[in-house]
User: Fold this.
Amino acid sequence: MLKVLKFGGTSVGTLDRIQNVAQIIKKIKDEGHDVIAIVSAMSGETNKLIEYAETYTKVPVAHEMDMLLSSGERVTSALLSIALNAIGYPATSMSGREAGIVTDASFMKARIQSIDTTNMKNAIKAGKVVIVAGFQGVTEQNRVTTLGRGGSDLTAVAIAGAIEADVCEIYTDVDGIYTTDPRIEPKAKKLEKISYDEMLELASLGAKVLQNRSVEMAKKLNVNLVSRSSFTPEVEGTLITKEENIMEKPLVSGIALDKNQVRVGMYGVTDKPGIAATIFTALANANINVDMIVQTVGVDGKTDLDFTIPTTDLEACKTVMNTFAQQARNIDYNDSICKVSVVGVGMKSHTGVASKAFTALAKENINIRIISTSEIKISMIVEEKYAELAVRSLHEAYDLDK
Ligand code: ASP
Ligand code: MG
Assistant:
């Protein structure tokens, strides 16, 4: 098999950790596989480099930032290659350029345009382990670029897609994706498999583990992703794959929690065509990410509008909403709410999934403010003080602890 492995910052955080990664690769080589490993910078390194630049100016020249930041990944790729060669495993490190990664010229947030895999293929043919510095490429004009924070995952997925690797294993300090956050529910279980779409919906569970952009790319390129830990490499991780590859589809795969939500209420709005269009266009133009929306008509013929936004967008949202103050009886903001979501591809073909969620919360006397559903998700807004209780009772209701 051809395996693409990616080691994040904590996995290569010290010289010992890099030695540990060399041992993981040695074992995989001994099992007869070919390996391309993508590495992040040592943890904290990228932040340190940003601080260096900011001692001169808060707005450093972008393409020089890329020259600077890309160096962190190059250091770890060379060190890992040195460590592997030292234990008798031929390896070669490659910068983004040498790995054939061409991007557009959006410095510090470049997008990969193409990958010429010739160099990597030749090195593999010569029996070498290829170590690629993650998070970087070059423009067509040969300027170094970086892919945005957390971008090494993207490098790994893009390479795995371009070279048609059998699997892309992402090593972090977490050993997979759990049915819910184990800090909230210690009975949470590690999932064996999960579909791309479920993973994207469960972003809050995977946030520490996988960058959303790279899950989207894996889906597009049909790359089998595995989330696993370099601290416990003997433990199998979680496979993130296409739905068709999951034979026995669980009804519900996981419960996600998002506390960074604010509910905005706009009450007593005159009910006429176009009002929602005007408000949500204004919010969109201000780049505010509106999530759940509910509109209800009151007895007086006026409309109440409720929606949620990320906490980080609150100030910007207030600015926009103030321009509509004349058109509503009142507008209020409640940030002591949270969103709990039940996610599972199995609910596409089953009934009664939503009612089970509502029953579970009712049993605990938790009031649901807003409900929204999609094919594979039921999201509920509840008071933040019930967040953990809601997660635990939903986890139990769907037997996720079994
Ligand atoms: N070193 C980069 C960062 O910290 C890229 C990565 O780790 O994926 O954002
Ligand atoms: Mg990272």
